[in-house]
Amino acid sequence: MTLKKVPHLAHWGAFTAVTERGRLIDCEPFFADSNPSPMLQSIPQLVYSAKRIRQPMVRRSWLKKRENSDGSLRGREDFVAVPWDTALDLIADENRRVRDRYGASGIFTGSYGWSSAGRVNHARSLVRRFYFSGGGGVDQQGNYSWGAAQFFLPYVIGSYMPLTGRVTDWPGVIAHAEVVLAFGGLALKNAQVASGGAGEHTLQPALKQLAAKGTRVINVSPMRDDCPDFLHAEWIAIRPNTDVALMLALGYEIERLGAADSDFLHSHCVGYPQLRAYLLGESDGVAKTPAWASAIAGVPAARIAELARQLIGKRSFITCSYAVQRAHRGEQPYWMMIALSAMLGQPGLPGAGFSFGHGSMNGVGNPRIDTPAPQLPTGANPAGLAIPVARICDMLLHPGAEYRFQGETQRYPEIHLMHWAGGNPFHHHQQLNRLAEGWQRPDTVIVQDIVWTPAAQMADIVLPVTTTLERNDIGGSSRDRFVFAMHQAIAPQHQARNDFDIFADLAERLGYRHRFTENRNEMQWIAHLYQQCAAAQQSKGVEWPDFETFWQRGYVEVPAGDSDYVYMADFRADAQANPIATASGKIELFSQTIADYQLEDMAGHPEWRAPQEWLGSELARQFPLHLISIQPADRLHSQLDATENVQNRKTAGHETLWMHPDDAAARGIRHGDEIEVYNQRGRMLSGVQLNDGLTPGVVVTSTGAWFDPGFGEPWQPRDRAGNPNVLTLDIGTSSLTQGPNAMSCLVEVRAWQSLQNDR
């Protein structure tokens, strides 16, 4: 038996690819990773999946009629196989036609998705580089992970960079924090993945050190399992989307007890008088007392008052998961968390202050010299056009309509050509039946991917792409300690081609191959990106080996740095000498800029306004369960959903929905039952598992099940896979940020089998 082993990398970890006679048989975790992800074992199943796209395909009626094809047949009609040259000629011709007739505003280049860990064949970067090199198009701004916070935090703390993982390091938290207050928990499953890949998974070791020290950890979440058992976290079961009400009551108690740090609030903040007036009810007549918050959040008033006392006088570290801001008015808890930390005088202290994303993604809080990871440049978009990432449906369905964003009024363009590479919008986006309707509108939809995702099944032209194992690349994350050589392990399967080569050949047909490739091939780009990283390291006094040595060894390590990083330490030490990039140079607990926008849905300071759907709303009488969608434990978003390992974890053949036993009993539902989850926007099938670690009235499911309304059949309004985004609202978090609101909504549940029997 002849085995071959080469270094490689995925978003869920580095590994050695093991092949036998040219076939991938195993993925052995990287030696430095003490807590590797089991998702590595699903990679061979993806590579050899029956759902691989085997050759270029074109939808039958589109091939016949081109621009006059009926878009409503997308997802319902069969495909015709064509040679690669024919497919590329068709795409190039469509590019010319649309650009000549409609200009850059007719082309949507905003393909969204993590795609692969490799940076040269990173599809999202390549599709932008290709279209930007050819005259530009309509791009997307922000992301689905922390899109609301990205456009909101600069008003309050001057930057959104802490969202990327550049926050107070775990070693400092472990050494100094007396209390860790985690809104949205510290879920280990989320830390299996890192954008760009990971050489080591660090959250579990960090939390075990925290537990060994005996640090008090408090998990504020509708789910007890948002913290691992070994952490012995205190669980405060809260109603979804009410975190800010609880935080406001904590602020009220801190002020009432005379514990607010007036010196810090005066020297490092602006706007506390306005916030204080709101907390005490002086500005609106409603004091934000623990009793007031209890009626909203479902947390006993005595527990809220006790929590305030647990924070006062302690070195406290307060963190919010990304999920907390992926909801209607999701900006508010982030703002009030910052305000709470400021009231306690904690920002900039070792092991204290506020943070985002600890427990939301691997690498957040990792000690590492602050240097960039490998990154293929996209170049500037010469058209200067973009929409907020989650406003795709509005753009497709209402071209020319006005919308508010960042205090300005803008208009949606009219899209005629949409090119999606390396992502599955029928996972990320909310209200998928609405997205399916909008997806019919463009003249042409192009998708290039590895497998037949829902987006590919609803395209006009589909191109088969290699997995990372079938090509060479370089990978790494700006928050991980390693950069990796990604060696090709196996030959391309079927007729799959590399993303880089596909776009280079398209650029040649359109006359700008040189601008796109800069006369570099794949390996030359890999070497170039490595050399750029090495130069950045050298500027920090770190020498890396030459490229040939790196490529042969398979990785290079980034030093951790000489001392723990403490976010805002310089600002705390001297706010005048080290101002932050807000309008005032200080933390803005009241933002005059936001107030001057005169937004109908946001004031100039943190506040409680009821979200459109929550358990305290009138709609809860009709749909009395609050559905929360979480990141899955067995895949990244919708990646790997087509593998056997993931499919075998389903319940009753569908995505699992966790339900409190009392809620299930009230509906005659038992563990393992097949159920229908529904509201006024859609329906989906799921399988039930009972869990008493939920706030009553809350049901939970994972995102990422492949949207399945019946492709190739009469269209069904009911999703058969269990994708919660057939149910969620398609609204922005606010008119300020237009962030994604795809995490939760109100629903009802009924037993599917009994419903079938009744019919």
UniProtKB/TrEMBL annotation:
Residue span, Molybdopterin oxidoreductase N-terminal domain: 8-48
UniProt domain Molybdopterin oxidoreductase: residue ranges: 52-509
Entry keyword annotation includes Phosphoprotein: no
GO biological process: anaerobic respiration
Cofactor: Mo-bis(molybdopterin guanine dinucleotide)
Molecular functions per Gene Ontology: electron transfer activity; molybdenum ion binding; molybdopterin cofactor binding; oxidoreductase activity
Keyword Transit peptide: no
Domain Molybdopterin dinucleotide-binding: 625-745
Keywords: Metal-binding, Molybdenum, Oxidoreductase, Periplasm
GO cellular component, one term: outer membrane-bounded periplasmic space
Family affiliation: Belongs to the prokaryotic molybdopterin-containing oxidoreductase family.
Entry-linked PANTHER family: TRIMETHYLAMINE-N-OXIDE REDUCTASE, TRIMETHYLAMINE-N-OXIDE REDUCTASE 2
Name recorded for this polypeptide: Molybdopterin-dependent oxidoreductase
